[in-house]
Every structure is written in C-alpha cells, then in structure tokens.
Sequence to fold (645 residues):
Amino acid sequence: MSIDILGVSKNFGAFAALSDVDLKVPTGELVALLGPSGSGKTTLLRIIAGLESPDSGSILFNGEEATRRDVRERQVGFVFQHYALFRHMTVFDNIAFGLTVKPKKSRPGKAEIRDKVFTLLKLIQLEQLSDRYPAQLSGGQRQRVALARALAVEPRVLLLDEPFGALDAKVRLELRRWLRRLHDEIHVTSVFVTHDQEEALEVADRIVVMNNGKIEQEGTPSEVYDSPATPFVFDFLGNVNLFRGRVHEGRAQMGGMDLSAPEHAETNNAPAVGYVRSHDIEIEREPADANAVQAVVRYVLSVGPLVRVDLEMASGERIEVDLARDVADRLGLEVGEQVFARPRKVRVFTDDYQI
Amino acid sequence: MVSTGINTSGGKGGSVTEPALVRYLLISVALAFLALFLVLPLSAVFVQALEKGWEAYLAALKEPDTLAAIRLTLLTALICVPLNLFFGIVAAWAIAKFSFPGKSLLITLIDLPFSVSPVVSGLIYVLIFGLQGWMGPWLQAHDIKIIFAVPGIVLATIFVTFPFVARELIPLMESQGRDQEEAALTLGASGLQTFFRVTFPNIKWGVLYGVILCNARAMGEFGAVSVVSGHVRGSTNTIPLQVEILYNEYSYAAAFAVASLLALLALVTLALKTLAEWKIRQGLSAAKER
Fold:
C-alpha cells in the first residue's frame, strides 16, 4: 500500500512538531525517517498510524483519503521503541492478540490462530519460547515478539518507532540486518524512525532526513550520503570538516585553496563554507598544486580499521581526517609535523544556509 | 571504596550505617510506640468484648437494633464501593491517559474529601437536602426523604470515600503510560476490549487496594454519617453510630462487641492491603523492566 502525506502540520502548544510536510511512500518500500530528537519524525509516524491527528493536511492510503480514519481501521502494524508488549500475557497470547480481538464473524478459529502464531514464531526464531512472559525475554527477543504481534494481523503498512533504540549495540546490528532480510521476504510497505544515520543507511531503501519539523532531503541512501542537499544533511550523516571562505563566479577561495564551485557560477563574492567528509581528505608531504592547505599534525589515533588524524591549520581551525590504515602506515605521520591536506571532494554552500 | 581502611565505627555494617546501639534504640522506640498506641487498644477491644463470655458476645451482636445497624452498614458499603470503583477508574483513566484543560483542578477536587473535616462533609448535604436547605421544601412536597434517612447516609459516605480508588490508580496508570493501550488499538481492539484485556489486568491489584480502603472507610465512617443520620435506632444507625449509642448507655460489653466487628474488619483490611501492595510492587518492577 502506498502512503501519501500532503501538507501535514502539527503543533503541540507553541511547538511546531511538523510544518507543511509532503512525502510519498511507494508500495513495498522500506523508508527511514532520520533526524535528531525533536525533528518531528515520531510525530509523523504516529500521524500515519492514526495515533495522532494532524492540525492540517491529509494522509492518503493507496490514493484514498484516510486522514480521519480510526486507528483500528487503518490496518497498520506499529512497533514501539519500548516494545509495549502485554506483560500479563505469554508470548503466544501477545502474538495472537490481534487475531483474538477480531469481531466474531471475521475471527479465525482456534487451530487457525495457533498455526498462524507458530508460523510467526518460526519467522522470528522463537518457537521454544511461546509460553514465556515478556519479563523473561531479552530486549532483542521482546522486540522480535512485538514485530510478530504487529505482523499477525497482516497489516498493510508496518510502522516502527526507533525499533532498535533500546537495545545494545551488538543486538541492534543483528536485528536491523534481520529486519532488512525480513522486509526482502515479505515486502510490506514499511516506515521506520531512527536517529542513527548508520542504521538508516544500512537498512532503508529510501531515507527521509528531517529537521525542525521539515523534510531536509529524501532519496536513496547513496543520494543523501553522496550529494547532501543542505549543510544540515551533510553534517548529520557522517563526520564533516568545515572550510570558511568566499565564492566568486564559480571559484571558491578557502583556507589558501582555490577550488572550482560550478554550482555557484552566478554568485558574486559571497561568504561560503566548504564541507568535506573526513575520509575525503588526503594528506601529503609535498603540495602537488594549489588545492591543498598547510597544517600541523596534532593527534594520531587508531580507531579499528581507520587512523584518525587531527590537523591544525594556520588559522587555528582543526581538520579531522580519516585515513585507511595502510595509507597511514605508508605515511608514518609524526605529531608536530608539517603536512598538506588535500580535500578530494568539497561541497560549497553559501552562508545563507544555516545548520 | 576509599573508606575501607579507615572504618572507625567497628560495626559489621560498615561506616555508612548508624552504630548498632542507635539502630536498636530506634527500632525499639518505634515498636514500643506501636504496641502502646495500636496493639494494646486493639486487643483491649477484644478483651472487653469477650469479658462476659461468648454467650453474651453473640447475644449482643444478635440484638435487633445491632443487626439492623450491621445490615445498613453492609447496604451502604454495597452501594458506595461499586459506585466509587466506577468513578475512580473513570477519573484515573481520564487523568492518566489524556491531557485536557482543567486536569489539575480535577485532581485537586478528587482530594477535597481528604482535606475537609467529615463533619463538614455531612453538613453540606444537610445544607442541600435538609428541611431548611436549598432543595428541602421541594423534597418535602414530593415526600422524598434524604436527610435522616438511608439516601443521606449513602450520599455522605460516597463523598467521604470518593478519593480512595482514584488516588490509588492515578500514579499506577501514569507509570504504565499509554504504549500498551496504543498497541492494542493498532492491533484492532475496541475500547472495551482494550480496557478489559490490557488496561484492567495491569491495574487489578491497584483496584483491589483502592476498593479495600474505600470499603473500610465506608463501613467505618462516623463523622459525616452522624450528621445526616438522625440516629434513629434500628433504621438509620450504622455500626459506628450503634457503638456510640451503646457506649453512651453504659452497655460497655455490647458496645465493645459491636466495635470488635469494626476491629476485625480493620485486621482483614490490613491483611488484604499487604497482599495487594506486594502484588502492585511486583507489577511496578515488571513495568520498569519494559
């Protein structure tokens, strides 16, 4: 089922949680709503579910008006950050709940419910735990039960609110890969909320980056990562270095570098900021041309497969560079040494953009 | 710990607790106080009640006016407790699960019966329904008796016992949040299904706790009921009023026999209350684990 969100706004008192948001979620896709807390992503998810109603704007399901439709009639599966399992019920009864509350004429028989629940338990690999209570399960197991419970009613949309937020790092990694595989199997239209950019990049078909109740950018993971539309997106997805300077008719002067900035061909001597990811900088001892900036090595730190180098420019500003280990080994950098930093990829934004 | 090497108190409990002498002193003071002001009077009630033997004890309870008082007390509790159970759950639900204008006013109003003297609680009903009250003449014209009759006693008792269930449930329901109810709704459950299958099982021990306290107060209330009852023997006397009358007539054995019923009620209440508290704690710690 496709979802269309048209001009949705929502205020909580004086706080604008969402302002005029438009979004299309195509059938069968797994979409991530990514943003810092307070960006409105959870509110948007709850509005899709029908747990909140928008102040203005509308929601269409498969092109049909659904803004005022009751939660129960929307056929959405909702997974909560803190699982929200019924703690006085066993795993079996939790998963069966959505089936047992159906009106008598559409309610499946006991045997049918049992079959269905065990099929789902198999899917979440917890067949042996059907008569346990939620308190007897680990966090990862609880969230899988919550997912099975939501899937039992065969929802047309699956909505997940920070589904892995309460889990520890290793379980989170396992579970998000599992969710990706599950989605490839069942292909239900899914929207999940996260503040973890790595999680969004790894799991989602499309990423919607939100900030201050607005959508900053939407696109495939590589689109938002490789061509961020705004400084905010650049900053939110990964480590970034800022070079301050000016642009004039397609050329940018920053930190002693002279770079081409064709997207600003019309700009006339305006202040600008160059954004460079920490792994898009090369370090060399001799400058090959004018597009390198002189700096002093301040720290060298090994972080797993990477070596993180802190440089200080003549202006006193710092640059963070991530080098592959073999590259760093070949360079053999010493603290205090003079080097040249050459950005491989710079994205220039004029100063009217603000983070 | 830094302090391990310089522990000067010498006690087994280490430097963070009081010396043993202070601990035992405090505990014995508390126990002595409890014995003097609670256990002793309570046992005195039973000793006095049984002073003239079982025969006299049972005879005092079988006395027709006393039986009538017991019946009236049970009737009052039977009306008040279910009503306040209903009001209490509705009010707690509204306060814990929704935000609406006037919410804090509602919470304050629920507490009102606790902060008002029971005598005043009785007097307000006399003021409204009494002969000289606002509705008095109209009630008299239609031959409806409220004050100095059973309806007045029930009304005053409802007022006095109103906060018990709601007060108990509000913090419990607030601590549990709305996640489970929202989950039930997204799974297609109706409002009633959500209440009976999700909300109620989570609050049932809190409800029991509230009902026990509500019932104890409904049966034991003296002040408010005394004002509206009119003390008509065999018809508008509840157990506490009957005790007072017997006592004023120097029938000590009978007075204490009837009083022992209330004391027994208190003991049963305490036992049930402890059980309910224990169950609620279990529920709360499970809620924290979520």
User: Anything to note?
Assistant: The CA atoms of residues 181 and 194 of chain B lie 6 Å apart.
